[in-house]
Design brief:
The complex is a heterodimer of chains A (about 450) and B (about 500).
Chain A (H helix, E strand, L loop, with lengths): L4 E2 L10 H5 L4 E6 L4 H9 L18 H6 L2 H14 L4 E6 L1 H6 L3 H10 L4 E5 L7 H15 L13 E8 L9 H14 L3 E3 L8 H6 L4 E7 L5 H11 L3 E4 L5 H18 L6 H28 L7 E6 L1 H14 L3 E2 L2 E3 L8 H9 L9 E3 L3 H9 L7 E5 L4 H7 L2 E4 L16 H17 L4
Parallel strand pairs in A: 2-3, 3-4, 5-6, 5-7, 7-8, 9-10, 9-11, 9-13, 11-12, 13-14
Chain B lengths: L13 H4 L5 E4 L1 H9 L16 H9 L5 E6 L9 H9 L13 E4 L4 H6 L2 H15 L3 E6 L1 H6 L3 H12 L3 E4 L11 H13 L11 E5 L7 H5 L5 E5 L5 H5 L6 E4 L2 H15 L12 H14 L3 H26 L3 E6 L1 H13 L3 E7 L15 H9 L5 E4 L3 H11 L3 E4 L5 H6 L4 E3 L8 H17 L2 H8 L7 H5 L16
Parallel strand pairs in B: 2-3, 2-4, 4-5, 6-7, 6-8, 9-10, 9-12, 10-11, 12-13
Antiparallel strand pairs in B: 1-11
Classes of the chains: A alpha/beta (about 450), B alpha/beta (about 500).
């Protein structure tokens, strides 16, 4: 049963409207109360994209829609959306009000689809699930209601080197845009054409249409997005390779690329193994040129640098950052906090994966969506040396109380702008290093 | 006749209580006249995302220093409240608060089962847990659409909790679907505060004046000092205790009448604190009137006259110099009702021709029923009419359409998200977040300087214009801006 949450780090199901915003020229249409869009816009900040935020059409449920139902109002709004906004695909998302009233949005989209419109409906009342889970509902709804219309022109798994990449959730992961671009670049380096579906490195709805052609799926996530991978497997026979977290730095990025490479070969992709190995080697060398150059600073800087970290993030970042920090910067991951509302059935898997970080160390792990409560755990702890907290804007005050360094790297993030920078991959690791030590150095004045 | 009734658990929404509307197009004079003889709202057959009451109620309680706030609903209904935690922290120096404490904001995080079986029990245990964890001096409970529709008994749960815990546990009924006017959320928050927090006065103080405001800079300490008084700020940065005894103040003033309307009326009616009904001090004549009303209320009319004379001597020459530079310029305004009217007055002082305004809603009169509080009426009387007044609750499509026709020299905004379209059209756009920035004679100077700076430094917007991404269709931009408003009439850009 869901319990009290202090300082929420994620939002409700309708927050997955941001996954629509992340598709070039797509528009979310909200069949919801008047404040829902505003709440989501306020949570993510600077996230309106092409037609999100104040641009998104909304039925703005009032008392009369609650009493009489809102379908007529929605029909009118959708009809006029086509007149006012120039978009490639429209996705209706319903909120609590429509959900409780029981409006049949799927029948409504049938009417518009019969007129040849690219329209999709998905039920996302806030009480149904959180936005991590609703992201999969939205993507699967687009596959079933839009991609499915073009299946016949798309021979399944015909493009042996094309893959679907499922990883960062748009906007919930502040680095989603940069991460997707970096995954695409890395996978291109080993000979694969990754369809990232969201952001400027995707090809908009045209890319979505070609989903059935892809050979397989790479799921880079501890848990979220799994229903999409399973759905694609069932629908188009595309198997998926699972990498359990964001790969940050050289060790895990190399492991990620080799995992995908091996899977690709097994699935019959045409891989130039020598070229792929050369790419990995060059990336690794470039990475260690930096680490080599930096090591003296890490080892000798005498005025104080963080020696341990607490992370408040989704499971993928907690795993990825813990492994990276320990092995590639020397910062010891202490108590870690998964604050993403991860269903319990995934807990053991995450624990096992974190245990792989070190055979010498036990890293205490807490699954606690009530992040305010998680903060109280940190308040009660003491570790020697200077600490750093990597979390959301909510954690800034905690860091101040503890006299720790603070790096804002998760939503909501009012103290930091993220545009296209990324934490995934080799260069993502270098970026984490820059961010952590710039934060520390900025305290010297 | 005031509509304040603290015996009811919920405040009536603005549409019903004040006859407020969210759809109108015409001139300022037409709107003022219509407001006196029955204003009819107009619906739109296309609409975009609005705000809702819960966010506005939250903004009046999350910044109370020693209170905790529980949003009773799914986790999404409190998603944006972290922004108030940010505001509280970064604006603390403006209110001389050295160590702003962490905001205590919770969600009962309702799920599907709760909508079926009810969530009263969950709320009751949430209140207990919050009390234990945060040890607040009051707990506010914000209701949401889901809770409102399933009909949970929030009133009883909070009453029982209050009896058990011995601190005020205050329900705020602010479900989004109940009102199209999101400022109803302010009223809901204030109604709850007046019902459950404010106590009957122990004494009447002549040295304290209530200031209902947001979190802007403190100009009031300096302004009230000559009158031998100091401000009691409501509600941001207040404490539960300072709110409780706001009943003892000599008077209540407001930074913005659309914000404080309900609470000012409640303080007067229920606790005997007189409200200064004169509209807020924006523009020279209104600032004169406001200081005189303040002097009269505090029994010090001479102090007011001296202050007015001193300030005018200092600022009028500066205003005249700015006016010289700005005369002939045109502007467009987007803002909430009270503040939008205020900005129209400031522009007039600066010699700028307001070509129109998009104002989020319109209250024919406020809770005090006084025509003196009607800032738009004063604006029209003091400086003349304003064309193209669009009452429009952040309907971006209408704004884009109008701006692209009117193409003013610059745009003034008060709320987030609106300047983007000015900038995309290459129109220098200025948002001032601090609502006290334009107040008084000095405020006109401050605004004038910032406007000149904005117009002069237009390189960024000119470049953005060249590369602007526009999701609106050519068809739409060629239509009349009020095509989707009920009873759309021919609209002319002037």
């Amino acid at each position: 049963m869901a319990g009290l949450i202090e300082q929420e780090r994620y939002t409700c199901a309708i927050g997955a409207l941001q996954s629509v915003v992340a598709i070039p020229k797509a528009v979310p249409i909200l069949h919801a109360g008047p404040g829902c869009g505003n709440m989501i816009m306020g949570f993510f900040e600077r996230s309106t994209g092409y037609a999100g935020g104040n641009t998104s059409p909304c039925t703005n449920f009032s008392e009369s829609e609650v009493i009489f139902g809102g379908i007529d109002r929605l029909r009118q709004i959708v009809k006029n959306t086509y007149k006012v906004l120039d978009t490639d695909i429209q996705v209706i998302l319903s909120g609590c009000t429509a959900g409780i009233v029981g409006d049949d949005i799927e029948s409504l989209v049938d009417e518009f689809r019969a007129e040849g419109k690219n329209i999709v409906a998905v039920e996302t009342p806030g009480f149904k699930c959180n936005n991590f889970e609703a992201h999969s509902l939205v993507v699967n709804a687009i596959i079933d209601q839009y991609v499915a219309l073009f299946e016949e022109e798309q021979p399944y798994r015909s493009d042996k080197n094309a893959i679907i990449l499922l990883s960062s959730i748009p906007y919930q992961d502040p680095f989603w845009k940069g991460n997707l671009a970096e995954y695409k670049r890395l996978l291109h380096g080993i000979g694969l054409d990754a369809k990232v579906l969201f952001g400027p490195k995707s090809d908009g709805v045209e890319e979505w249409k070609r989903i059935p052609r892809a050979n397989f799926t790479a799921l880079v996530s501890p848990w979220y997005g799994e229903p999409i991978a399973e759905h694609l497997e069932e629908k188009y026979g595309q198997p998926f390779v699972h990498f359990p977290h964001i790969p940050i730095g050289a060790n895990e990025t190399e492991r990620f690329l080799r995992t995908v490479l091996a899977f690709a070969e097994k699935q019959g992709a045409e891989i130039d193994r020598i070229a792929a190995e050369r790419f990995i080697r060059r990336e690794t060398e470039a990475y260690y040129e930096e680490i080599d150059n930096l090591a003296t600073f890490l080892l000798e800087f005498r005025y104080g640098l963080p020696n341990h970290a607490h992370i408040f993030h989704d499971a993928g970042y907690v795993l990825g950052l813990s492994k990276f920090l320990l092995h590639e910067t020397g910062i010891v991951p202490k108590e870690q906090f998964v604050v993403d509302g991860i269903p319990e059935r995934y807990h053991d898997g995450i624990r096992r994966e974190l245990a792989k970080t070190s055979d010498k160390k036990n890293i205490p792990l807490f699954f606690e969506p009530d992040a305010g409560k998680a903060q109280d755990v940190v308040r009660s702890l003491h570790h020697n040396g200077r600490g750093i907290i990597i979390g959301s804007g909510w954690d800034r005050e905690l860091a101040e109380e503890k006299e720790y360094d603070f790096l804002s790297a998760s939503a909501p993030s009012p103290y930091r702008l993220v545009l296209t920078s990324h934490y995934a991959g080799y260069s993502g690791g270098l970026r984490v290093i820059e961010d952590i030590y710039n934060t520390s150095l900025a305290t010297y004045r | 006749m005031s509509k304040v009734d603290l015996s009811l658990s919920e405040v009536q929404v603005r549409e019903l209580r004040l006859g407020s509307i969210t759809g109108f197009q015409g001139s300022a004079q037409e709107l003022v006249s219509a407001s006196r003889c029955g204003l009819r709202d107009k619906n739109r057959s296309f609409s975009q995302c609005l705000g809702c009451s819960t966010g506005n109620a939250a903004c009046m309680v999350t910044l109370i220093r020693d209170a905790a706030v529980i949003s009773h609903g799914p986790v999404g209904c409190s998603s944006c409240l972290h922004e108030f935690a940010f505001t509280y922290r970064v604006n603390a120096p403006l209110r001389n608060l050295d160590r702003p404490t962490q905001r205590k904001i919770y969600s009962t995080n309702l799920d599907e089962g709760d909508t079926v079986y009810g969530s009263d029990q969950k709320l009751a245990s949430a209140i207990r847990e919050v009390n234990e964890r945060a040890t607040p001096n009051a707990i506010f409970v914000l209701t949401t659409c889901a809770v409102g529709i399933i009909g949970d008994d929030v009133e009883s749960v909070t009453e029982e909790a209050e009896a058990e815990l011995g601190i005020p546990v205050v329900p705020i009924f602010c479900e989004g679907f109940k009102s199209k006017v999101w400022t109803t959320g302010f009223d809901a928050g204030y109604h709850a505060i007046a019902r459950k927090i404010i106590k009957q006065p122990r004494e009447r103080r002549t040295d304290v004046v209530n200031v209902i405001n947001f979190w802007g800079s403190d100009i009031f300490t300096e302004w009230l000092e000559p009158f031998g008084a100091k401000p009691n700020f409501i509600t941001p940065y207040a404490t539960v205790d300072s709110l409780a005894y706001s009943s003892e103040a000599a008077a209540t003033i407001q930074a913005c009448p659309t914000l404080g309307s309900y609470l000012a009326a409640a303080l007067e009616q229920e606790f005997g604190v007189p409200e200064i009904k004169t509209a807020s001090p924006y523009g020279i004549p209104q600032t004169d009137r406001w200081f005189r009303a303040l002097g009269k209320m505090l029994g010090k009319p001479d102090v007011a006259e001296t202050l007015i004379a001193q300030k005018k001597k200092e600022y009028i020459p500066q205003i005249e110099a700015l006016r010289e530079k700005l005369t002939g310029r045109t502007a467009y305004v987007t803002a909430g009702a009270g503040h939008g009217h205020a900005l129209l007055a400031v522009l007039a002082e600066l010699g700028v021709a307001a070509k129109g305004a998009a104002v989020f809603h319109h209250d024919p009169l406020y809770d005090n029923g006084s025509e003196d509080s009607d800032a738009l009426a004063q604006r029209v009387r003091d400086y003349g009419d304003v064309p193209n007044i669009n009452v429009c609750n952040k309907q971006e499509f209408e704004l884009v359409n109008q701006l692209s026709r009117i193409r003013p020299d610059f745009m003034l905004a008060r709320h987030g998200g609106m300047t983007l379209w000015g900038a995309k059209l290459g129109i220098p756009s200025l948002l001032i977040g601090d609502e006290h920035f334009g107040m008084g004679y000095e405020g006109i100077v401050r605004y004038g300087e910032r406007i000149i700076e904005t117009i002069e430094n237009d390189e960024f917007v000119k470049n953005l214009e060249k590369h602007a991404i526009n999701p609106y269709t050519k068809w739409w931009l060629a239509q009349e801006p009020f095509t989707f408003m009920e009873g759309a009439e021919i609209w002319q850009a002037s």
